[in-house]
Design a protein that fits this description.
397 residues; alpha/beta; seven-stranded mixed beta sheet; four-stranded antiparallel beta sheet; globular; binds pyridoxal-5'-phosphate
């Protein structure tokens, strides 16, 4: 996955354009910038690559998730259904808006379980937010049908899945609003950065204003711009956008490398009857950022992790025992350890987490191993890795 592996002359050239003019900000300074608009160019590049009408580039993926919800009107007291297997940013973004994250089980797609989503809908539900974890997607047709029936928003967190597709559409562009992260370990990196994508003109206008203190960006005098509504500062700097611009242009090349490396590893593990792979919904194609597979049980998965480590294989994660991505270790959320008081509504809305169990997810995450697909491996290294992984895992049975 990490685009940082591919940092080189193309990225340096874009950054140098910015350094040579000294215009580090994406708005204004038209004369000084000598025609360099890196954030705007990155937005056009992503529009083209993802085939989406609008892109607003921002300063992080977490900002992008927050904005995706905010621009569609999600706010205080609204419930947002999200998976219990994701990066912590998902609930952070929801809570930042005063909305209530409703965590539900995942299934063997490693994303939202459709039945669990249906069971979680209440009169306060405003949005469903699937997270396309580790390069593959939720069953978007099924989620869309639920959203249509209950008049809910479908917000896609595609931060880990740029380049994946579902029924011919880029992940992130299927729902009402989508978001991406370009942090340092994502497929495309800006160093830090993110993007909100949508085909909805109003949501895009909202994103444009909201990410810059509500500025309407009309005319050529920033100081004289109107503020139709309140906003914040989620702006990306031109330096970060410059890195992302070079990287985004290389996305097709990145995806090709990921697919090639993924396929070699997968074909090796497919020879082991006890190994099963993560389910990709019909009509979906992964971004191949990770190879995800299931062992027969938790114990086998733990043993496999030990065997992989002894074989010198790094970059494989057992999220059940990892404190970042799975609800089991989110004690700071369950105990509401915040620096500042939360609203009474949010506090009450989150009290279910003190008792709720996620048995079905425990089964899947307990058995799952997720291996990062790197782009800098040589073909020889991938084959060597595939053999080592196969031997290490087969040795357990
Ligand atoms: C990385 C990530 C984010 C947040 O992105 P940052 O750019 O690190 O803020 C949000 N959601 C998911 C699923 C992610 O993997």
């Amino acid at each position: 996955m990490p685009g940082f592996e591919m940092f080189g002359d193309l990225e340096r050239q874009e950054v140098n354009d910015v350094l040579n003019t000294g215009v580090l900000m994406r708005y204004g300074f038209d004369g000084m910038r000598q025609g360099h608009w890196k954030a705007k160019e990155l937005e056009s590049e992503l529009q083209k690559q993802l085939n989406v009408k609008h892109v607003q580039v921002v300063n992080s993926g977490t900002s992008a998730v927050t904005m995706a919800l905010a621009v569609a009107g999600v706010g205080a007291g609204d419930e947002v259904i999200m998976p219990c297997f994701t990066f912590v940013a998902s609930f952070e973004a929801i809570m930042m808006l005063g909305a209530i994250p409703i965590l539900v089980d995942i299934d063997d797609t490693l994303t939202l379980d459709i039945k669990a989503v249906e069971a979680a809908i209440t009169s306060k539900t405003k949005a469903i937010m699937p997270v396309h974890m580790c390069g593959s997607m939720a069953d978007l047709d099924a989620l869309k049908a639920i959203c249509d029936e209950h008049k809910l928003l479908l917000i896609e967190d595609a931060c880990q899945a740029i380049g994946g597709t579902y029924k011919g559409k880029a992940l992130g562009t299927y729902g009402d609003v989508g978001c991406f992260s370009f942090d340092y370990v994502k497929t495309v990196t800006c160093g830090e950065g993110g993007a909100v994508v949508t085909n909805n003109d109003d949501y895009h206008k909202n994103a444009d204003h909201y990410s810059d203190h509500g500025h309407d960006h009309v005319g050529y005098d920033r100081g004289a711009e109107e503020h139709p509504f309140l906003g914040y500062n989620f702006r990306i700097s031109e330096l970060n956008a410059a890195v992302g611009l070079a990287q985004a242009r290389r996305l097709p090349e990145f995806l090709e490398i990921q697919k090639k490396n993924y396929t070699i590893l997968r074909e090796a593990l497919e020879t082991i009857p006890q190994v099963h792979f993560r389910i990709v919904p019909d009509g979906g194609e992964e971004s191949y950022a990770f190879l995800n597979f299931f062992l027969p049980d938790l114990e086998a998965a733990r043993q496999a992790m030990t065997a992989l480590k002894s074989a010198g294989i790094d970059g494989c994660f057992h999220y059940y025992d990892n404190n970042w991505h799975y609800v089991r270790k989110w004690d700071h959320l369950k105990q509401l350890k915040t620096l500042h008081p939360l609203s009474k509504e949010l506090e009450a809305g989150l009290s279910y987490l003190k008792t709720k169990s996620f048995d079905q997810s425990d089964l899947y995450i307990g058995r799952n191993i997720s291996c990062l697909i790197k782009m800098s491996w040589t073909e020889e290294q991938v084959h060597e890795r595939a053999e080592k992984m196969k031997t290490a895992i087969a040795s357990l049975f």
